[in-house]
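Researcher: Let's try something more involved. This one mixes different molecule types, so please make sure each is placed in the same coordinate frame as the others.
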Amino acid sequence: MPLPETDPGRQFRLELRGISKSYPAVRANDRIDLTVAPGEIHAVVGENGAGKSTLMKIIYGMVRPDAGDVLWNGRETQISSPAEAQRLGIGMVFQHFALFDTLTVAENIALALPEKLPLKAVAARIVEVASRYGLPVDPGRHIYTMSVGERQRVEIIRSLLQKPGLLIMDEPTSVLTPQAVDTLFVTLRELAADGCSILYISHKLDEIRALCERATILRGGKVTGVCDPRRESSNAMARMMIGADIQAISSARTVSAGSERLAIHNLSLPASDPFGTTLSDISLSIRGGEVLGIAGVSGNGQQELLAALSGETMFADPQVITIDGKPAANLDPRQRRAIGLSSVPEDRLGRGAIPSLPLSENALLTNGGPDSVRGGFIRLDKVKAFAERCIAEFGVRGGTADSPAGSLSGGNLQKFIVGREILQAPGVLVVAQPTWGVDIGAAIAIRQAILDLRAKGAAVLVISEELDELFEIADRIAVIASGRLSPSVPRGRFDRDAIGLAMSGQFAAASNRSEASRVHSV
Amino acid sequence: MGFDLLPILLSTLIAGTPLVYAGLGELITERAGVLNMGVEGTMVTGAVVAFAVALTTGNLWLGVLAAMAAGALLSLLFAVLAISFRANQLAVGLAMTIFGTGLGSYLGRPYVGMALVQDATQAGGGLAQLPVIGPLFSAVHPLIWLSWILFAAVWYFLARSRAGLALRAVGEAPTSAHAIGYPVVRIRYWATLFGGAMSGIAGAYMSTVYASLWTEGLIAGRGWIAVALVVFATWRPERCIAGAYLFGGATMAQLFAQSAGIGLPSELMSALPYLATIVVLVLISRDASLMRLSVPASLGKPFNPQG
Amino acid sequence: MSIRFELRAQPSRTMVWLSPIIAITLTCCVAMVIFALAGLEPVSALATFIFSPLADLYSVGELLIKAAPLVLIAVGLAVGFRAGVWNVGGEGQLILGVIFGGFIALTFGPTGGVWVLPVMVVGGAIGGAIWAGIPAFLRTHFNASEILTSLMLNYVAQLWLSYLIFGPWRDPAGFNFPQSAPLAPSALFPTLIDGTRANASILIALVAVGLGWALMSKSFVGFQLKVTGLSEGAAKYAGFSAKRAVWIGMLAGGVAAGIAGVGEIAGPLGQIFPTASPGYGYAAIIVAFLGRLNPIGILFSGLLMSLLYLSGDVAQMSLGLPSSITGLFQGTLLFFLLTADVLIHYRLRATSAAGAPKGAANGL
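Model: All components are placed in one shared frame. Result:
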């Protein structure tokens, strides 16, 4: 593969030589080399688990490498802490944000500035930078009142006020609507034009092709290629990323005329947590053999909706949710499971499984029916056999029924959890972020399993922040924004821009656009 | 009636002061996200150490300093286990209390039954000789004055100072604080040591000023009440000091009842502070959204700077 | 070369059981230092401290009779601890057992028949359950911390018992000593082994161990409690009620402690004193942790803690040290246990050149 030529006389802003880092179970980074020139927008590409985050944490001083050199502006440097990284001029915008919810924007930013300034002065500088780069933000607002997109803006402004020479952006578009992505790219290009280097971490190839001048591709902790993404085809980059061609999932795309299996009737739910989202007047209906996708930017009521469906939140009026026509809103999760509703939460290690318990006991978590428990006592052999079935049928690698869940990779554990729910043959499956943070192989297997379940006549609800995923598997897509649910759009009328508008809460504009354009994308 | 008010206020002040020290100390610790349930044990140790040193040297202030050091040392032990090694904070705190109580009763054995003779005017140094305000210094012990200065300092630190903002940030979201360059572990250590030192003073006050003697049941749950007080105060110093005097008043209820001629069993009156603690905890904790907005979000949760 | 701690990929199962042994060894070392400081010959003093309480059959009976309440309460508390329910009110719940059982014994003992003792046991269990039920109620309905409420109730229970003994229950023939009248024979546990004070309350502790084992290791309820304790989120998702876990966890401890309280007055004491419990409610917390919250482990750690109590008396009589040394060693033991528990999640490693990022780490 031809390497893009680099000017040998030019000094790199950042250069990594032979960076390695091992954890007890994995070699996260294996002799990684990377160079970033001043003013360059450089992508670090790789699927989940390829070692991107570890590498960024090393550059930002959060993790110490076992071996290798870091050169900053040509000088060998040891970045021992984030504070040290900031002193050098390295800023980072985190995927999950490093903000303080109960503090104001100005307080958040004041905390990160090296010099002590009165809050008023900080606010003035925020406004200055905000207007320069088109990032409107109110310095007096508390973070917990802000949307995810606004929070990201605060993070970017905070980094910019530190006058960074290098800005690391970790999967910045995962929390943005398609329109907001375009705006972000404009900002990043302006920054680069001012001489700031940008390390852009992503697994989305089309974004990288639109934004970046160079890309370093990682697989299994190693560099598998350096290229100019604007000149490389997506397929070629994908091959470097996963080592093989991306396999398509197979599904018979027939519209089945099953009967209604899951319905929500005018569900409203005030936020139980002051930082939570209030659900208002949500209605939906899913038939057997159908996948309904719910798109939306995170924090818009997805968690609350999932809790309402799974039974973690119960309602006084049983009619609000019906499963196969049976009123179910007043049932707890075990009762709902008994009448055929299974769910997969988004948080694998904190909810879907318990890291310290073996897979067999994790299987018992949701499979506590008469097969596994008799007379109040656990039938260990049956429980173990069920776990082994999940492992075998869903291709879970790296563990047996006795291995602790925490010892599996994200993808394998997610396959196990999805398998555990699907093998109980639910009539309705509710899945949140089914492939969040899992490798491509596992993602394909999980999406395939969802479609296979659909083919057997189950109704599936998929809540996902990944539009591409919903475009791939959903029969209809609805959008959740600020706790309200848009009307759904059937496959064939999926329109990225219309859905993007709906994700920012403009349901009317979205449906106008969708009506007007009638663009059949995907 | 007005004539009786002064002694009542004064005795409330005297009984509330150990809670001011221990409560404000624990408040700072908890604001950094560390839940140290070992206040009781630290107070016991502080009380014994202060009593022993004050009795041996004849100097109250040396006793107080020794108690501060002992409290800080005990909480250092807590910090190593709970902060560096991320052991369960509840378990370690409980261990501290059991250990501190055992240590206190072992070390204090030789001092049981001894009395510390001291003169409040002497403790205040020359201040009591001042005209007009002098009598205030002789009636109100310098450790009480100091507790007010402590309150002012804690209030200013949390509400106005940059360091206080950093401490709150660490308690709110340690991962974020670490990410923007704050030494989370070090800040938590200092907050824990401060809490320990203040618990030490609280214990010292109990043995050297409040009771002027040492017995095994001297602290009698005041450390636990201080922990509850921080919840009651919704982690705000001004409510903490108010709550301390409220509980101080409850401790003195027995005296009020006697002077008012109310014939309730003394045991019931003695149980009042404990019952009041329960009632107050219930009243505050039941408001889930108030708790959610007040409690430092990372309280009791271990933080791993490498993860 | 420097030693540093490194996170293990998985918790070590060996260390889970090795840790108590390390803690006991270290506590013995501290004991020897203290003996040496007190001017004693450390090794022989330690030997006296450990072995003299086991010199004869009577002493073995004492060991069992003190271990019984510790084991019983610790098994009850362990049910809660596993579910993340922090019942530290064992002491108060024990005292309620004393009060309820004592009331039955003093009221019906002199005239009643063989039914008095069983009724006392049930009464004590109810008393303990009520005292544990209060924090459970306050936690499930008002979200009040059960640690603080159950602890406050310890003091309240102690004051209540004091009131009774100094007031209505004081023995008129007791020369004004703070104690009740001696309990009637029908209100006492029968002695199991002649020549000792070991009585049938030991059997109750053994039954508790069996029940606790079945509940925690075999039953689905035990699994649900374990899940609740390990991960609140996972329990919610699975549909295991957190409130139910609080109730089961608190009541298990309360019932056990209440029965242990009856065991005290209907056993070795045979009379009710204000100091009915020498801190068993607190010591049982250590027993539970030392026994790894496992009933079988608790059986052994309970015996050890009982030995520590007896050794305290020995220390006073043979070594000239205050018996409060027991409390010191209890605290030390718990501290060392939690310290050694660090090794469950970490391993010690020697690294070259003090953590320089370049040098590769050498395992040991």
